[in-house]
User: What shape does this take?
Amino acid sequence: MESIILASGSPRRQEYFKMLGIPFRIMPPRLDESYADGMPPDEFSRTMAVKKIDKILSQLNGKLPLWIFAADTIISFEGKVLGKSVTREEASETLKKLSGREHDIITSCALFSGEKNATDCRTVSTNIQFADIPPSTLEWYLDTGEWQGTAGSYKIQGIAGCFISKITGSFSSAVGLPLREFYLMLIENGYVYGR
Assistant: This one.
């Protein structure tokens, strides 16, 4: 199989690529990922995924690789993007908002084909229902530090899975790579998978 440039530093995405047996090399793009107020969350996610592809292309100085893949995962709550908490207090406020409520995890995937010189971008939304988080449980969770560096102050595949009462949609997308959609994207863009 052909190697893909993975424009991501996400350990989860790397694990999925390894699990799928896809050869890859990592080139995390350095971008300002600040949320633009007023932009719909799904549009923001798509914009960031495509910007990551464009950033890698600019770093390659006009040499078109066969494939580049980038993704962007965000938390959407009440129509706004919840970013990564910097402090424990911010994480606490975010999780109090999510407690007992629904939110969406949106992942946009962008695949650049050097043969087509074009980027295909697709977006998947997964709805998450949190149970009520008792104050003592919230403090225990914050003590774990798992909230650090994560959108929405939690990892769905981590300890915070204890808080989730219902998932509607793709679990792998909520982790950061919608496997079914990614597979279809590869096949439909001419990537020879499995050989």
